[in-house]
Amino acid sequence: MVLKLTIFFCTIFFIKKVLALYEHEKLVQEKVCFDRIEKIVENQYKTIHLTCNWQKFVDYGNKNSNNKIQNCNETELIFHQFDFYLPFSDPKYVTLKKDLFKNFRVQSLSMKSLNLAKIEENAFEKESFKHIVFMDLSSNKLQKINTNIFKNLEVLEKLNLSNNKIALTENNFQHLKSLKSLDLSGNQLQYIHPNVFNSLNRLEYLDLSNNNLEKVDACTLSKINTNPITLRFVPPIILMNNNPIDCDCNIFYLNRVLKYRLNLTCSTPKYYKGKEFIDLKNEDPSSTCKYKTIIIFGLLICACCCCCKNISKSNRILELKNTLRIKNEQSVNNGYYTQIPTKNDHSNLIIS
């Protein structure tokens, strides 16, 4: 009897595990999502595209949270691409909570125009999101992004945060080591922290258009790609259209020295106003950039030379004084001097 009960419960447990791995089938059956098979490998699903009602998906996740497994089975070749839509606005669904995708292996996630205002820190848990390569959070109401939100997205390659109101801080993207494309357009940005792109050394595409940027620091953007081969053959593309950009030395440095491909329209100075930067290939900004740098560099060299010369002269005087002092002491001790010279007068020095 005990053996039969054991077998029965083991069978039930196994069935639940198997059903949990195919959570997308339950979602389709309950009309929460519509599925489309993207790829098939050896008669098994490789990639499944799910188009889901955001509100029903959240309600379904809350209702069935106790039945979800803790970890995905690595032997299964099932990946999920999510594309959500919002039938109507409801304040109940403005927060992306943790564990919502616990039993999925997310490869692509599109959450565009869902009125999201907050993302909980563990919303993108490691077991479900360690394979993700694309994420779209555009056209929401996000204002702040905690640094740890992206801590499990180390393989993410494309991130779209456009049309929000995000204020960037120093460490927003420090965990996104593999990111190649970042869209920050339409966020009303007025200032970019100097260290915000420090960790994005593989970035190939950066969209900063439709913001309120007036000044761009060349040092800030020079850190987005540190691979010399990529810089030479595939330099980063930076879009800065519809910004009141000042085409100063920083902009010319990014293009002429770092070879970045820039797309922007100059607002200042007056002689560049309204001109596309791509049309300024024959312009010579040396009068305001290059020569100024050379003059400063030259002055620094002259100052260093003067200091070195003075130091060298002082050292020679000290050496001469030390030599005379030593000879004077030796002569006095041996009785060679007929007259001991004064401190400042060595003209009467006579060696017998």
From TrEMBL:
InterPro entries: Leu-rich_rpt, Leu-rich_rpt_typical-subtyp, LRR_dom_sf. Pfam families: LRR_1, LRR_8. Keywords: Leucine-rich repeat, Repeat, Signal. It comes from the Eukaryota. The keyword Signal applies. The keyword 4Fe-4S does not apply. Residues 1-20 form the signal peptide. SMART domains: LRR_TYP (SM00369). This is Uncharacterized protein. It comes from Brachionus calyciflorus.
